[in-house]
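Private note to self, pasted from the team thread so I don't lose it. Backbone tokens:
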């Protein structure tokens, strides 16, 4: 079995960090763009896509800065993260997505994230 590697994607977004954070960290926000249905109980998020359920625990978060999740079926050192940064010069908001995939799957996984983030930006009007 091939070991998964961390990869990072960056997306400029026209949105305040506060609004963006809500879409990345709350069940109602995530349900708008990430999954068909999202529930949360005691820090464990249940994501549903077309009747298929996946659970992820929220590992860490900082208000308006980042949120990190780990799929319950994944190894302890693998996670996916949404980080919100501001550029110094233009003060533009950047969404940074970090995730793990096998090297040969990074391109496909990146395209999936790009599709998902495009839907997110549509929902927030960016």
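Design output:
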């Amino acid at each position: 079995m091939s070991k998964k590697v961390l990869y990072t994607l960056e997306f400029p977004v026209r949105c305040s960090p506060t609004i963006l954070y809500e879409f990345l960290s709350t069940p109602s926000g995530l349900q708008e763009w990430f999954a068909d249905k999202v529930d949360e109980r005691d820090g464990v998020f249940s994501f549903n896509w077309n009747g298929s359920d996946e659970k992820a625990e929220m590992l860490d978060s900082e208000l308006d800065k980042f949120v990190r999740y780990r799929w319950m079926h994944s190894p302890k050192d693998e996670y996916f993260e949404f980080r919100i940064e501001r550029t110094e010069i233009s003060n533009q908001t950047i969404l940074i997505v970090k995730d793990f995939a096998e090297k040969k799957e990074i391109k496909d996984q990146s395209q999936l994230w790009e599709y998902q983030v495009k839907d997110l930006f549509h929902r927030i009007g960016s």
